[in-house]
Amino acid sequence: MRRIGQGRTAEIFEYTLNQIMKLYHADFPAEAVQNEFRITDAVFRKGLPVPQARLFKDDESRKGIIFERIEGNTMLSLMIQEPVLIKELSCQMAVCHHSLHAQNDEEGVLPAQKQILTGAIRNTSLLSEEEKIQIISYLSTLPDRKQICHGDFHPDNVMVNETRDQYWVIDWMTGMSGDPAGDVARSWVILMSATLPEDTAPAVHRGFEGVRNLLLDYYIRHYLQISGISRQEMDAWILPVAAARLNESLPGVEADQLIKLVHDRIRLLK
Ligand SMILES: Nc1ncnc2c1ncn2[C@@H]1O[C@H](COP(=O)(O)OP(=O)(O)O)[C@@H](O)[C@H]1O
Ligand SMILES: [Mg+2]
After folding, report:
1. Residue 266 needs a FRET pair 20 to 30 A away by CA distance; which of 78, 136, 137, 177 works?
2. Where are the domains of the chain?
3. Residue 219 Cα to ligand 1 middle (Å)
4. Ligand with the closest atom to the CA of 22
5. Angle 180-193/86-101 helices, nearest 10 degrees?
6. Mean pLDDT of all residues belonging to the chain
């Protein structure tokens, strides 16, 4: 099979003419793959713009999901190829994110945001027990909602067709139900701290940072404008979301930056 994409968790192969196979790394837990299948299926049934998950394959050592194939590019690759499109694509990303949040998970199919965040905060080795207790207690004061949240919404997980009038959201493993303000805060945290591998050329680093900062600015501003959510409402989620992200195996520089952010924000609680 011809490989057409690669992410942190899996490789993507052409499967048939209009289907792809997402083949997870060998050590990846089958339960997480099953979760991605289940969540993608649930949001697809709600009519959201996601590729249909067709089959879960767990008969081989590497688990896989066969998905409907999207004809297009990720927003990230388009932004890097054509920087003039950054503003348009960032605003489209905001519209897309908002359209997910307009739906809710009344049926309770998706895991709950506060539970996911609490679990990750408890599990990180980068915070003290006292810090964890403070953050979790603060988290319990934030709104309880049941809107559809993606949990990893960034421009490499949004695809767009060639004429840029249709988009799809992929990679639903971290889908959850919760407060949209928390889902946008998570995108903010990812976008403000994401780095390229350390051996990338300095010029590419600078180019990437330019894309990242412009995107962050346009996307957040447009999202807040169309959703009516205030910057304060989004900002309130940054502490628990950043703390929970420390539980992911991040590159050292990203972890250091987030630890500093978390420490600064804990100080503001007092
Ligand atoms: N349904 C699809 N159709 C076409 N390309 C896809 C599809 N799903 C994923 N891809 C490609 O594979 C890449 C990685 O997929 P993704 O699901 O985000 O994996 P990961 O969990 O590893 O990030 C995407 O950035 C995209 O280029
Ligand atoms: Mg991805």
Report:
1. 177
2. 3-68, 73-269
3. 21
4. 1
5. 150
6. 94
Question: Is domain 73-269 in CATH 3.30.230.10, yes or no?
Answer: no
Q: Is residue 158 in contact with ligand 1, taking CB distance under 6 Å?
A: no
Q: Which of the listed residues 170, 173, 174 should we mutate to test ligand 1's pocket, taking the one with most ligand atoms within 8 A of CB?
A: 170
DSSP classification of residue 106: T
Name which of 256, 125, 144 is nearest 198 in CA terms. Answer: 256
9 lines ligand 1 (CB under 6 A): yes
Between the CA of 171 and the centroid of ligand 1 the distance, in Å, is 7
pLDDT at 236 over 90: yes
Query: Is the Cβ atom of 49 under 6 angstroms away from ligand 1?
Result: no
Residues 135-165: b if buried by 16+ CB within 10 A, e if exposed: bbebbeebeebbbbbbbbbbbbbbbbeeeee
pLDDT tens-place string over residues 102-138 = 999 999 999 999 999 999 999 999 999 999 999 999 9
Give me the helix-helix angle, 129-139 and 113-123, nearest 10°. Answer: 170
pLDDT digits (tens, 9 = 90+) for 56-70: 998 778 999 999 999
d(CA 206, CA 213): 11
Which ligand 1 atom sits nearest the alpha carbon of residue 157?
18
